[in-house]
Write a structure and sequence with these properties.
The chain is an all-alpha fold. The chain has 13 helices and no strands. The protein is 82% helix and 0% strand. Helix 5 crosses helix 7, helix 6 crosses helix 8 (154-203) and helix 8 (154-203) packs across helix 13 (273-330). The longest helix has 58 residues, at 273-330. The radius of gyration is 31 Å and the shape is flat.
Length: 331
């Protein structure tokens, strides 16, 4: 008690204020960031609720679609998990800004079709924005922790935050690429069986459209979904060659493109379709076998890395160390 009584009031107040500012500065920054983001979302929501002149006139001036509604994918109109963010932010301006940094809208639309997610470009831009904001938040939290543990220059901390945001943006794009690759691998794995089923159906006397319908209803998987879209387009009035060509352009997979081109040529020239389908299935099996051999060769080379750089040096050390020890004892 005597020690506290001898301390001047001004020094005690200044020490308490210094401790309070150093201890709560980081939490104050986080709270200020949260308040700023909340106010920005409220402003964006209020702006989205007030439609402009173009939005009020759009329902009356919108052209009616010339094709059947069966040709449109219902999944593309679903809001998805990022629909609330799209409605709040509105995303036309944000999408344009992200389009300058990433791929154009046409290329992104094609990649989304290849991924088979059913998302629109605006929803994917909202997802990219969310991943970027999460990366910035993680970088800001890490920068605050580093600043509290050990002081660092502001430029380094700012670069860390920006790098985290860029990592989130790139990670979202890479996740889409990984989804496309996995879907194409599944489609290639399903293609030989589907082609054989189509060949059997055609050889049994069914037409191309009926064979596609039967196989699409009797199978499951990514390729079956694409065949379902082809059957839907044929029922809506499109021809089988046009529907297969659209599937080839939509998937972007080389074996499927060859399959669609071969079927189109066979239908146009009157070539027996069953033989063409069986040949396409055999070609895909041979391509899969070659890819497995190439993958095995690459993995075999990768297995040499630990052998050469880890096991072999340790073996040499065990072989040479006794001789070095004997020479050292002799000297």
């Amino acid at each position: 008690m005597t020690g506290w009584a001898n301390v001047p009031v001004t020094e005690w107040v200044s020490g308490w204020a210094h401790g309070w500012t150093t201890g709560w500065a980081a939490w104050g920054g986080v709270a200020g960031l949260g308040i700023g983001v909340g106010l920005w979302l409220i402003r964006a929501g209020l702006r989205a609720r007030s439609p402009g002149l173009a939005e009020r006139l759009e329902p009356y001036l919108r052209p009616r679609p010339a094709t059947s509604s069966l040709l449109h994918d219902d999944a593309r109109g679903r809001p998805g998990p990022f629909g609330l963010l799209v409605e709040l932010v509105g995303l036309p301006s944000v999408a344009e800004r992200l389009e300058r940094l990433g791929s154009p809208a046409a290329g992104l639309r094609r990649r989304l079709d290849r991924a088979g997610t059913g998302q629109s470009v605006e929803h994917f831009r909202a997802r990219q924005l969310t991943w970027t904001v999460l990366g910035l938040a993680a970088g800001l939290a890490l920068a605050l922790v580093l600043a509290l543990v050990r002081p660092a220059p502001v430029v380094v901390l700012g670069a860390l935050v920006l790098a985290s945001g860029a990592a989130g943006y790139v990670a979202c794009d890479q996740a889409l690429t990984w989804t496309i690759r996995r879907r194409e691998e599944r489609m290639l794995a399903e293609f030989p069986a589907v082609a054989d089923l189509l060949a059997l159906a055609v050889a049994a006397g069914e037409g191309p459209a009926a064979a596609l319908d039967r196989v699409a209803r009797g199978t499951t998987g990514e390729l079956s979904r694409e065949l379902t879209r082809v059957v839907r387009a044929v029922r809506a009035g499109a021809s089988v060659p046009d529907a297969l060509t659209a599937m080839s352009a939509r998937t972007g997979c080389v074996p499927l493109s060859r399959f669609a081109d071969a079927v189109v040529v066979a239908l146009e020239r009157g070539t027996p379709l069953a033989g063409v389908l069986q040949a396409q299935a055999q070609d895909v099996r041979e391509a899969g076998r070659r890819s497995l051999i190439e993958s095995g060769g690459r993995r075999e080379i990768a297995m040499l890395v630990p052998v050469v750089f880890l096991i072999l040096p340790v073996t040499v050390m065990f072989a040479v160390f006794p001789s070095l020890a004997a020479l050292r004892v002799g000297f």
